[in-house]
Amino acid sequence: xxxxxxxxxxxxxxxxxxxxxxxxxxxxxxxxxxxxxxxxxxxxxxxxxxxxxxxxxxxxxxxxxxxxxxxxxxxxxxxxxxxxxxxxxxxxxxxxxxxxxxxxxxxxxxxxxxxxxxxxxxxxxxxxxxxxxxxxxxxxxxxxxxxxxxxxxxxxxxxxxxxxxxxxxxxxxxxxxxxxxxxxxxxxxxxxxxxxxxxxxxxxxxxxxxxxxxxxxxxxxxxxxxxxxxxxxxxxxxxxxxxxxxxxxxxxxxxxxxxxxxxxxxxxxxxxxxxxxxxxxxxxxxxxxxxxxxxxxxxxxxxxxxxxxxxxxxxxxxxxxxxxxxxxxxxxxxxxxxxxxxxxxxxxxxxxxxxxxxxxxxxxxxxxxxxxxxxxxxxxxxxxxxxxxxxxxxx
Length: 395
Ligand SMILES: *Cc1c(COP(=O)(O)O)cnc(C)c1O
What we know:
Blueprint: H1 2-9, H2 37-47, H3 56-69, E1 73-77, H4 80-90, E2 98-101, H5 108-114, E3 119-122, H6 134-140, E4 145-149, H7 160-170, E5 173-177, E6 185-186, E7 189-190, E8 197-201, E9 214-218, H8 221-231, H9 255-266, H10 268-285, E10 292-294, E11 301-302, E12 308-312, H11 318-330, H12 346-352, H13 360-366, E13 369-372, H14 380-394
Parallel strand pairs: 2-3, 2-4, 4-5, 5-8
Antiparallel strand pairs: 1-9, 6-7, 6-11, 8-9, 10-12, 12-13
Helix pairs in contact: 2-9, 3-9, 4-5, 4-8, 10-14
The chain binds pyridoxal-5'-phosphate (PLP).
The site of pyridoxal-5'-phosphate (PLP) has 14 residues, from helix 4 and helix 5.
């Protein structure tokens, strides 16, 4: 396991926000990619060929993802954000159209509508599952609604029985932001394949990584063809390199990334198993802790776990939570708040006039979340150390 200790010595950490952590060997980082010699060899092998983009690894990775999600098509792109954008554009969603989504997510799940001039309409979340509340979706539907964009928060699929019923009743498309849910299922059906189209992101903190990267999965053939064209500058599969029937983007993913992704997805079962074990240690360790709660997992859901988040109860304020985050970091324990409500981000307030109190369930949750260290190198002992520190700070 040489590569792992190398990473530790360099103080490697996921994301720029936590650059001050992981400087001591005893530190516990928030997230860490699960990379083996097999991935390293696969990447190096691509570098020994002339096919660094649009080569054989692209199709290999796409095929593996389509199989994992039980969809007919998978289209690799350069990020999860690009994947969301291409779906919105391919569905012809634009100015005057509304898309209903959750404010408790990463900004990309709303930004993809803004890129196309469409209007995001937020529906508040369920206080226990932390996913978009189906009753709030129903209440937000108007004549202009074109789609629902649920997010499988922290890996738990949204209640797709309810989503399907609402979408069917109103003739809406469903874009599943499954970026946090690779390997999860709802009634045995893989996340990503639960709506008309699903997306994944492969930033290093996700279940599997390609460094940067994303994937669209769908069984809608026309949608798949359009996404494929738009990712490659609007080219058609059988047209020439300088023939562009439509305006597109360069959202391609290199074969170097795809080689890494293909090995990662081949290890998905093993990776999910490890993550579920760590989640179980946390859930057992914190089961009797009354000062916080954990995400309620609905019975039809199988969760691969993106991050492990606890919610402090209402006696703690956002300031209390922020103090606890700071003190955990001082003890070398990587942690983060997840998420800041999208509607309260400065650019959203400026454009749409949202204010505090607009989505109270989301806001109350967002003020009190703590994401705890969650990755392959966690042990029952390190989980206990994290929980002991947390319990002490709650007092
Ligand atoms: C990771 C993530 C994305 C995509 O992120 P990229 O950094 O663009 O790959 C989108 N939505 C959610 C909910 C995510 O967690």
